[in-house]
Design a protein that fits this description.
Layout: H1 5-13, E1 19-27, E2 30-41, E3 45-50, E4 59-63, H2 64-68, E5 72-76, H3 77-80
Antiparallel strand pairs: 1-2, 1-5, 2-3, 3-4
């Protein structure tokens, strides 16, 4: 797991435009699972365009702190087959 926010951003920069699976803490023991494409990374947040078939909203954004604190877990689809989670 990357140790700093800068390391997390660099890791995500390498995966721009790739499909991913996203698990986020929804509060009160709820887990939100979504699929989409990593579109953009900014200084403090990253943006995921969600699949329209499964979600009512078009895109979501999370901070790199969410990954660091493990409130959000990202797995890229091409790495699911090998069992490697890039951002975790």
């Amino acid at each position: 797991m990357p140790k700093t926010l800068a390391d997390i951003k660099k890791s995500l920069d390498c995966h721009l435009g790739r499909r991913l699976q996203l698990k986020a803490n929804g509060g009160r023991k709820k887990t939100i699972e979504r699929a989409g494409i990593l579109r953009e990374t900014y200084r403090a947040v990253f943006v995921v365009d969600l699949d329209q078939d499964d979600n009512a909203i078009e895109r979501v954004s999370y901070s790199y702190t969410d990954i660091l604190t493990e409130a959000v877990e990202i797995t890229f689809d091409d790495e699911v087959a090998t069992g490697v989670a890039a951002a975790k």
